[in-house]
Amino acid sequence: MGKGYLLGIDIGNTKLAFGLVGCNERRFHEKRVVPTERELGAEQAIEKVLDNTRELLATAPGEVAGIGIAFGGFVDATRRIGLSSPNFPGLDNVPMAALIEDLAPGIPVLMENDANAAGVGEVVYGKGRGHRQVLYLTISTGIGGAAIFDGVPLAGTQGLAAEFGHMIVAPNGPGCTCGSRGCLESLVSGTSIGRIARERAELHDTMMTGLAGGIDNITAKTVSIAARQGDGLAREILEEVALNLGIGLANIIAAFDPDIVILGGGVMNSADLLLPPAIEFVKGHLTPRGVKVPPIEASSVHDDIALWGAIALAGKAAVNHSSSCCLVDLVGVGR
Amino acid sequence: MGKGYLLGIDIGNTKLAFGLVGCNERRFHEKRVVPTERELGAEQAIEKVLDNTRELLATAPGEVAGIGIAFGGFVDATRRIGLSSPNFPGLDNVPMAALIEDLAPGIPVLMENDANAAGVGEVVYGKGRGHRQVLYLTISTGIGGAAIFDGVPLAGTQGLAAEFGHMIVAPNGPGCTCGSRGCLESLVSGTSIGRIARERAELHDTMMTGLAGGIDNITAKTVSIAARQGDGLAREILEEVALNLGIGLANIIAAFDPDIVILGGGVMNSADLLLPPAIEFVKGHLTPRGVKVPPIEASSVHDDIALWGAIALAGKAAVNHSSSCCLVDLVGVGR
After folding, report:
1. What is the count of structural domains for chain B?
2. Residue B302 clears pLDDT 80, i.e. is over it
3. Partner A contacted by B259 (CB < 8 A)
4. A52, A120, B7, B94: least buried by Cβ within 10 Å?
5. Taking 70 as the threshold, does the pLDDT of residue A262 lie above it?
6. Do A146 and A67 belong together in one domain?
7. Does the CB of A48 have a partner CB in chain B at under 8 Å?
């Protein structure tokens, strides 16, 4: 028998990604990305997931030892069901893992929400390697999080642990998508950075307006570009964002005392601008009482981290299933 | 052989408490409390701990199956050493568990900081029974916390997890004992409530001044008494305290998604005044995004909870040691 393979599936609202990786490899044997095309409905999207899975299973050059699914929504990891996907309601309560198992009888399947999967991906393939207690934040349109202990994401009672995006950093702050106010997400997400910049650009001169071709087109990316070119307003906004990120980081570190905090998501393309001042704030808060500040680092895996997380889950499924073919270096991935 | 006993030792800065409890009992067979008398120095205090332990071991009517220690300071639970006791420097790095083991060869000993011990006490003897994921906050002169998963306190990398008192609830808020600003402790601890009340009493009419016999004598207790008698300023202060407590609770619930949050410590003598508005705030923050608010309750054990926690640790030590005599109902106390 040839070497074993792991199959990862990342079910997002805009794209579906599939990756086939040799058990001991850290490079894709095959990777596919197709658009989710929500507008065509949930059934079509599910069909796409199943078709691509079927094809990858058929083309794998060896036995597939495990399958992992990262899902962009709330997940019951024990029952392996996506409970709800805020941006794609049709995918609610679809027993995705069971559907995949029907295609691949005997191959174990694990499923987590995409932030938890990404956190596991960091532990197995990214900057979390060798660390037992890892906090992961993904900062993109929204903010998700994961607390990974010995490779296992903390689920919480309702499957809602590590919702770092909805911790309050500014009481009486701006309204958040969640319906409350002052959440980390309402001040630090990509969407929020864009909103803050558009509000301020109405009142102040800034090169952002020109760069974006109008105030309404300013996004977080515009802010980042303008800040790099020395725009005062853009720099001021990112300083505030960094401070609020620092408050959020100080709070999760006080709560968990982790080995390392890893930050991913699109906003981390500006990690060089945001992390140094955020870390400075965290140091100022923690060191007076003798707490060592853990490493706070941008993810090295970037776009594919949820997919790598799904692959790591596949490895975990294989290990749980005592598949001897699978020797992937599951650092700390115990249970 | 008669029934087994558990010995708990609570080493605090002001008092040393000892409790002997039958393995399946929930009442003290014997309880002793003696003053720590810090002014006499660490050696004297250690001698007192050892003397009382020796006496209780000698008078136990049956085999002592385990000993637990709650320590008022930072603890390395793995090495079972109190690393530092902020208010009693002489007790730093004393190998307390080893000293106790010398007195009682063969009896297993476990040690935790007092907040973690109290949290374990809640899980075994208090409101945390039957719950797998319990957050515990103690609000007295300072604020301590514990996150207990399956009966095991989350330690964190530096033994500093669950430091809920130093999560920020008011950026740019008042200075905290830790050297930073705006921590939960700086706004909600008993010490802080007293400080806030004294500051405000300088500026406003309040019955607190008379009740305490002068502004300088106002404490958190004065605020509570005055609020119950309808004093406007006292009520206003407690409303603010409750709001800040609510922010802290909302944040730890977002981080952990626990089964239950239990609050102990002297300030919880005003639980009837503080918890309803705090819970109201938490509901307002969490329910818009569909999160169920977990039970948030005042401890039922009050003053003795750290000692009961030490006794629960003794039970855990006995179970780990596979003592068959010990059948204490260690709900969820797994590992």
Report:
1. 2
2. no
3. yes
4. A52
5. yes
6. no
7. no
What is the span of the domain harbouring residue B191?
Answer: 130-298
Instruction: Compare CB distances from A289 to B164, B166, B255 and report the shortest one's residue.
Output: B166
Please give the helix or strand (H or E) that residue A32 lies within, else none. Answer: strand A30-35
What was the pLDDT predicted at B40?
93
Contact B254 A167 (CB under 8 A): yes
Could you give the ipTM of this predicted complex?
Answer: 0.93
Confidence of residue A331 (pLDDT cuts 50, 70, 90): very low
B257–A161 CB contact, under 8 Å: yes
pTM to 2 decimal places: 0.93
Distance from the A110 Cα atom to the nearest Cα atom in chain B, whole angstroms: 22
Q: Does A87 contact B at CB distance below 8 Å?
A: no
Do A157 and A293 share a domain, yes or no? yes
Any domain includes A329: no
If residue B255 lies in a helix (H) or strand (E), which one and from where to where? helix B232-256
As given in the structure block, the two tokens for residue A308 are 């790598």
Whether residues A307 and A281 share a domain: the answer is no
- Domain-embedded: residue A330: no
Token duo for residue A37: 């095309």
Smallest CA–CA distance from B282 into chain A, residue: A180
Chain B interface mutation, best of A157, A186, A259, A260, highest count of B Cβ atoms under 10 Å = A157
From the list B158, B171, B250, which residue is nearest A292 (CB)?
B158
Query: Does A172 contact chain B (CB < 8 Å)?
Result: no
Return the CATH number at A254: 3.30.420.40
- Taking an 8 Å cut-off on Cβ atoms, the answer to whether B255 and A284 are in contact is no
Report the Cα–Cα distance between both ends of chain B, in Å, rounded: 27
**Neighbouring C-beta atoms of residue B99, cutoff 10 Å:** 14
CB A166 within 8 A of CB B289: yes
At which residue do the structure tokens 């207790």 appear? B221
In this structure, are B81 and B137 located in the same domain? no
User: Do the domain assignments include residue B256?
Assistant: yes
Element of type H or E holding A18: strand A15-22
B83 touching A, CB under 8 A? no
Are both B39 and B144 inside the same structural domain? no
Spatial separation of the C-alpha atoms in residues B66 and B332, rounded to whole Å: 18
For chain B, give the percent of residues with pLDDT over 90.
80
Task: Residue B147: list chain A partners with CB under 8 A.
Answer: 255
Which residues, in sequence order, are CB contacts of B319 under 8 Å at separation 6+? Answer: B66, B326, B328, B330, B333
Interchain contact A40–B (C-beta under 8 A): no
Q: Residue A160 domain-assigned?
A: yes
The answer on B155 and B224 residing in a single domain is yes
Judged by a CB distance cut-off of 8 A, whether residue B160 touches chain A is yes
Residue whose pair of structure tokens reads 């030490």 in the numeric block = B310
